[in-house]
Structures are given as C-alpha cells and as structure tokens.
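re the bet — no i am not wrong, look at it urself. input seq straight from the record:
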Amino acid sequence: MSISRRKFLRQTAYATSALAGASTLAACGIFEKDPQGADSGKEEVTRPVTQDKQTLYIYGWATYVNNQEVLEGFTKETGIKVVGDAYDSNEVMLAKLEASGGRSGYSIIYPSDYMVTQMRDLKLLAPLNKKLLPNLKNISENYLELPHDRGAVFSIPVSLGTTGLAYNVKAVRSIVGDEPMDWNYLWEHKSKLRITLVNDPREVMGMALHMLGGSYNTKEPEKIEQAFQKLRELMPAIANFTTDAWRDPLASGDLMMCMAFSGDAISLARQDPNIKYILPNSGTSIWTDTMAIPRGASNIEGAHAWINYVMKPEVASKISDANSFGTTNKLAKSMIPEDLKAISALEPTEAMISKSGRITKLEPEVLQIYEGFWTRLTTGLG
C-alpha cells in the first residue's frame, strides 16, 4: 500500500491500552531508551528489549496497533497483554529491526508485500509454524501464493490495498464536466485540474511507466526517463507531492483530484458523499499488508496466537472496517459494513488485477535511477 510505501496513517503512537503500562514496564527495566531518539534531537522513545510470555509487543501501522476492540478481544481470549508501537513507513520498521540485531523485542510486525521480500533476503523473518495457525483456511488461496512470499512461508496477507484517484465530484463536474475513468484523464485536462500525486517515487514513476505500456518494476534507464518526461507534462496541474495532506483541501474543493492509497481515500469517501475513489480502467498498483514474525522474537507462541486470532472472520471484518481496506479473509467479506461493501473500488476485480501490477524489490543501482529522476521531478530541476 512509501516511502516508502504505504503511509496510510502517518502517525507515531502507542496503542492506547499500552500507555499506562509502558511507564511501569520502563521502571522494571523491560524497556530501554532508543539511542536514535537522543542522537537525532527528536523526542526520546522507548523500545522493548525483553518480555514475558504474557505480553506481546507489536510493531505496525497505526491502524493495526491502535485498534482497541481487536487488542482487547485478543487479551480477553488468550490472557496475553498487547503493547503496540506504530511506524509510518516500512523503511522505519526495517531500520529499527536491522539496528537491533534481532533483539528488537517485537514479536509481530506488519510489513507490506515488497518489504517481506527484502526482509526475507536479509534473514530478518522467522518461518511460520502452520500447525499453530488453524484459521489460515480462512484466507483466500490466491493471496497465499503471491510472488513476494509464495506459500506464505514467512507472512500472512491481512489487508488488500490499491492506488487510485480520489476526486471532488462537484469541483470536477463544474470545472471539467466529465468524471475520470483512467490515468490519462490527468493529462487530458491538466490545464483545468489542480491535483496532488503521492510522495512516492515507485508509485508515481510506476504509474507513468504503466501508462506508457511498461511495468511498475521497469529496470531500463531509458524507459524510466520516458516516464519522467511524461510526468513533467503534468507539472502545471500539480499542487504538491503528498501522501497525506490532501484530504481537507480535496473535501473543500481547493484540490480537485488526488492520487491516493485506497484506505485513505475510501475512509474520506465514507464520510463525505461528494468524494469518490476509483481504480483507473487501464490498471494500477495493487498491494497487501502482511503479518510476520521477526527473527529473534521472544514470544513466538504469542505471535502465532495473534496471527491466528486476526484471521478469525469477525476480527478481520473489524480491521477492514477500521482501515477501509479490502480483506484477504474470504469469510469476512460478508461481515464488513454495508457502506464499505457498497464502494466498488474497495477490492479490485479479477479483470482489474489482470491489468494491474505489484511493486517489487529492485536492485540498489536501479533504485538510484528512480530516485534521481524523482528528485529532478519534485524539485523542478528538469
């Protein structure tokens, strides 16, 4: 779902249920000060370094670790207390786990699909014990064979997301007339539109590559440059590159259309009927968030219990309702709220999937090419 990818909720927070307990645990020596916080001049944070089997430390996107109903339900069912910390990008999570040398203290993490591949290659993930996951049968089989982790050896996909177009219906109708159906709409009406694109080089460059008939994961420098030149044509219409700060301006009509991740856009559309979210007809970026166990996790049993609990259909439906993402749980689909089910772009159809792509890991030297063109695009250096 950048980053960094998938900054669907850019905030750093502790799960509310954990706040009271964190200070007590710190006094007992279960937490240590994070040296990165002191060196950076930022507010000092704590991180777990040891834990007992009756406490489970989770590190994930805020929408997962701050879901009080799910956290409390797990504790009631298992007797295991949950402490959740939130990150705002996959890269922040990766850096913390790498720096800890396998002693981060977290027993559950929520990497997005492409990050699973990277962490697997770095040997930062523990293989799953399927015998402890009887609810795995609730996950649609096609999601267990995705290229980032075929056979779900190291991760379980939990949420399904897309990248598309959110727009203000009244503003678009009054200024342009017709409503968007595909990415090319941005170019056709660039003289009339005021838009934002996500602050994510792989997503934005990938979208342009896709429009030009290529892949989101193109490695050829000349094709990447063609995508850059295509995006330069849009600059007069682009207000800024932002993953998050588009919601209020879009709702007010100051912005007309925004490239957005599905959870953010659908959440806004559920609150404001004047906002729509569509998947472009020619296809788009599709991605999943997963649950995984980091190497060195000290509560392996509790981690498997958490994954198994989240795969219960009634729990999966609550998570989908909270974050406005599609669910990989085939039994949960009928349980999600009607207003969410009514949004056709919630989950891509098989036809849409066949036209779309998934962002995958690229070699560092290729990423440097993307970053170079991205810097030129976002700074206006040409």
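see?? DSSP finds 17 helices and twelve strands in the chain. told u. also The CA atoms of residues 167 and 257 lie 4 Å apart. so pay up
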